[in-house]
Amino acid sequence: MNDPRTLVSHPELRSHQSFPHFQTVGETPKSALERGLSFFADVRSGEGASVLLLTCTVFLLLASYYLLKTAREALILSIDNGAELKAYSSAGQAVLLLGVVPAYGWLASRMPRVPLIGVTTALLGVNLLAFAALYAAGTVIAVPFYIWLGIYNVFTISQFWAFTNDLYTEGQGRRLFAFIGVGSSLGAWFGAEAAGALVKRTAAEPGTLMILAAILLTTCFGMIVVVNRREVRRADPVGQHQSEAPIGGRNGFALVFSDRYLLLIAVLMVLLNVVNSAGEFVLGKLVSAQAMELFAGDALANERRRFIAAFYGSFFGRVNLLGFLLQLFVTSRLLRALGVRGALFVLPVIALVNYSVIMVAPVLAVVSVLKIFENATDYSVQNTVKQALFLPTSREAKYKAKAAIDTFFMRLGDVTQAGIVRLGTSLGASVAAFAAFTVGLTVLWLAVAGQIAREHRRKTV
């Protein structure tokens, strides 16, 4: 009864058009909400309210993270050597996750999905209130909060997508994940803007932002309970049984290392993070060099900082806007046209072209345009594909192995890239040399994507 509900066991009709809206021959009449959502995704009768609630849930999760991220930066950069401590935190997070992932697996083996999410939400909420209390008492919490938030961020998002993977059949997930992901894009943008406005207009302190985030986290759990009740009523006997059964199975690391498909996804996660971080490093080097060229000397240090701040403000704004538009209008249609396996190759092909161009033309104007397109595709198409890869896996893989991959292996990618940058810098590697190295990694990424596609075909249709 814990087997995945794939298109083989739960077949469904394929939509016959996606422009201007999705439509399927013979489908049950939709509500006004579902007809509106069909302009963006293949939402069918009875699915609209839950899809909208899940979109709002991930929106609030991302918004809460950006509130906390603002608090984190204020805390860590206000202490001595804060910037250096940030660089070492990924390693600390990876070490802690070696204990957190098995503990989560142990908990998941003993309770159904909603109580599991309730317990973890309560633990994270209590942690936030404890940090707020310690801050109010004058305790220095910068480093532990920085490390804790790095785990909170990846863990809450991973658990949310594990829940949606468990909630929906493979066919539903393929159709609905792209629109649910719109909440991520909007939440990241809104949370960053809201945190900035709160700090500027109300002088809110980090402790206040932590309490607000705890309230948002609790609200998210309430919406998950509502969605679960709605979907369990609509589910077949298998879906209803799975909603009440503990997750079962081994711990996340054991699942990853015993299953070729999961292990390949873990390798993909490491490579994706290393390539993306390498691109950010190259971009940062070029921005810094341009700032030094335009405003050389100590007397112009403030102008340099303003140039860099203005560049990244514009850069992040364009990435978020393009990512949102891709998520809203392109991702659903791309998945319908290429399927999960085809869409798996979109980002690595873009990255291969980008770093090949950067290798021969390491110019800031070129690199910034290429990175905007690459990052926007990563946050939209690639993120949706990453979640959809778990649809044909077992329930224990969706919760436990996914938690291990989305948290530990992602941080492992960060640590690996930090080591590569340190080694390359010590050897005096140029921007073009870093780009050439990244081209090699991207070729490896494409090869791994090909293996995942082959394994995915074996698991589904």
Automatic annotation (TrEMBL):
Spans traversing the lipid bilayer: 49-68, 88-107, 114-137, 143-164, 176-197, 209-227, 261-287, 307-330, 342-370, 427-449
Membrane association type: Multi-pass membrane protein
One Gene Ontology MF term: ATP binding
Keywords: ATP-binding, Membrane, Nucleotide-binding, Transmembrane, Transmembrane helix, Transport
Cellular component per GO, a single term: membrane
Keyword Chaperone: no
InterPro entries the UniProt entry points to: ADP_ATP_car_bac_type (IPR004667), MFS_trans_sf (IPR036259)
Highest rank taxon of the organism: Bacteria
Entry annotated with the keyword Manganese: no
Family membership noted in the UniProt record: Belongs to the ADP/ATP translocase tlc family.
Protein name: ADP,ATP carrier protein
Organism: Luteitalea pratensis
